Prior knowledge:
Two copies of one chain form a homodimer. By secondary structure, chain A is α/β, with parallel strands linked by helices. Chain A has a domain at 3-174: 3-Layer(aba) Sandwich (Carbamate kinase). Chain A has helices at 16-31, 46-57, 63-87, 119-126, 152-164, 197-205, 213-222, 245-248, 276-285, 315-329, 356-366, 390-400; strands spanning 3-8, 35-40, 92-95, 102-104, 113-116, 130-134, 137-140, 145-147, 168-173, 194-196, 226-230, 238-241, 255-259, 262-271, 292-296, 303-311, 333-337, 340-346, 373-377, 380-386. In chain A, the strands form four sheets. Chain A has an eight-stranded mixed sheet, sandwiched between helices. In chain A, strands 5-4-7-8 form a four-stranded mixed sheet. The longest helix of chain A is centred in the N-terminal third of the chain and has 25 residues, at 63-87. The interface between A and B is medium-sized, with 35 and 35 residues.
Amino acid sequence: xxxxxxxxxxxxxxxxxxxxxxxxxxxxxxxxxxxxxxxxxxxxxxxxxxxxxxxxxxxxxxxxxxxxxxxxxxxxxxxxxxxxxxxxxxxxxxxxxxxxxxxxxxxxxxxxxxxxxxxxxxxxxxxxxxxxxxxxxxxxxxxxxxxxxxxxxxxxxxxxxxxxxxxxxxxxxxxxxxxxxxxxxxxxxxxxxxxxxxxxxxxxxxxxxxxxxxxxxxxxxxxxxxxxxxxxxxxxxxxxxxxxxxxxxxxxxxxxxxxxxxxxxxxxxxxxxxxxxxxxxxxxxxxxxxxxxxxxxxxxxxxxxxxxxxxxxxxxxxxxxxxxxxxxxxxxxxxxxxxxxxxxxxxxxxxxxxxxxxxxxxxxxxxxxxxxxxxxxxxxxxxxxxxxxxxxxxxxxxxxxxxxxxxxxxx
Amino acid sequence: xxxxxxxxxxxxxxxxxxxxxxxxxxxxxxxxxxxxxxxxxxxxxxxxxxxxxxxxxxxxxxxxxxxxxxxxxxxxxxxxxxxxxxxxxxxxxxxxxxxxxxxxxxxxxxxxxxxxxxxxxxxxxxxxxxxxxxxxxxxxxxxxxxxxxxxxxxxxxxxxxxxxxxxxxxxxxxxxxxxxxxxxxxxxxxxxxxxxxxxxxxxxxxxxxxxxxxxxxxxxxxxxxxxxxxxxxxxxxxxxxxxxxxxxxxxxxxxxxxxxxxxxxxxxxxxxxxxxxxxxxxxxxxxxxxxxxxxxxxxxxxxxxxxxxxxxxxxxxxxxxxxxxxxxxxxxxxxxxxxxxxxxxxxxxxxxxxxxxxxxxxxxxxxxxxxxxxxxxxxxxxxxxxxxxxxxxxxxxxxxxxxxxxxxxxx
Lengths: 411, 411
């Protein structure tokens, strides 16, 4: 039978009632003729609650033990879901990341999947079970329990789908697809029926929360088709998949994203000599802090300013690294500004349409929004603006590119 | 360095504050020169809360999945404790039952430990860690997560102590030792400095909650000395160990226990032929229901009544078995009376003191308490009485044998 992987996020399994509803959906898929593998996150706020308990004890909990603690969350959700499915007369069995053969590197709290050994999952499928797998967790090469970091359950689901040769990986969540902008900020945003891996990765990196960018990268590399859809309503969502150049014809922009959870970091008067940038970003990377929008301008007097954006959540961690780096490279100082927003325009079609950047800057200027940083990739343009201008900027850009319902940007 | 195993129950780790206090005690033991292995239960009411969620979904949760669910409880407690100990600058690492090499049989919910493979725990000790082990759980021979049943953490602790050749197994709990009677019922009860394995097993089987009888049996078989003591106060508790016959001289009774959580079950008019009792009790044992006080009286007309006591908590389960058994053996019917209490007098010395039983029955008669069932072992006499007479009966017997503070039964 064809295999389908379904992933349910924390909101979708946030109560025993919701777990029962998810059980109904799983049983439906099974009855439709699929072998079903379900990946679950922890229920509702469980992960945050566990984290809060650890922080009551110490602000710097031991990473190995924190992973041991947090993995209890998925364990609770997955076993309750298995209980609910079994109660419907449909056989189900749950497996921890370790039992499901999810092998990671040894980086606690932000481990990367290095291999899936799906033997036990396949045996369980062959025994007729719906298989429930804990998201977000794995076993390291040194036999320690690890977690994949926030949003890691998406990656678990895609990796399982790849390892099992599944037909598709359904990401069932509290929104019903990928939109041209966050509908809470721009009510006229439009649901995209299809989006390419590249665009989805840029959208995710730009702050669209619907999918973790690492999971999209994994899906592209292994050719896994992702279906982002609602956990609650049975309506078609958005397919994330390979899109032919032909299909792209005439499509310019797929969406605008806003990210208010990043800070602008600047290293002032960095000596402009080879190897300095490498030193800075290797040090940051070795702490597994994800950064975006690296910008360096031309230098004066042999010195330059180096800016980038980084998650505000990593602030303490980042400042410790930068204190060290500033001394090491002989920069003047660093500043961290958390009053910014990043607005990004994403679209594979912009490659062949010159003038997109100018149109975007123009739209922002017309709204009186000042641009503090600019960074571009072949399919994305990102601007850093003041945080209070963020939502207004998003709506202006969304309108300028005709992305609203019935607008010209439709695919 | 000598190894000490400390077990902390759910009340002792019931909050992050209490976990911090336990961490202090563990670090003290480490600083006193011991290698410390800590076995923890789930925090406070966690196990009951998880069970309640499962029961919200279905009254009959799948046993495999229920074990997966419940084991999340110790996982949370042990990782938080490891975090607290690490925060004190003392290295600690936590291990699940599976990781700690606790191998059980395959009986979900009531698994028995069949083997301890302490390789990973020993390596962790040698690496200088305080080792925290999840109580109550293990890995079955078919690689499934199992639980040992209520109170199983005591058995985990004793089994680890045996496997590691520990100096002692400290059971740290919310009472400061084993008393001649439950001090909440008989305020004049006296703490016993030492009690033999046999007596402790009889006291546990008779309803004393301080230790699980299975853990005492395990300790006796492997010669593990148990020290029952307070988690909160640093005072000597009760040692459970081998006691020489000589030391027993003059000691008659070690305590009186009351159990109000058992029901009296009677099979009426059972055909009196060989093999009937075996059929009944094999069927009950195969469901892993612990029974006590089996009593069969002389028969009339080739039929007899067969009575025993069993936990009220197993009622539904037991009734299902008995429905089947009654038909199979051709008995008339069964009755289950949950309005009873079991009062037991325990003492290794009673072997050599005739008249103890008579004194006990006399004490009950003087209080006007009617005896419904009697069962004796070489070191225990148990009587079933009406539940409302239980506490009064306990106090009467406690006084009759001079067990109160300053009384003649002192060791």
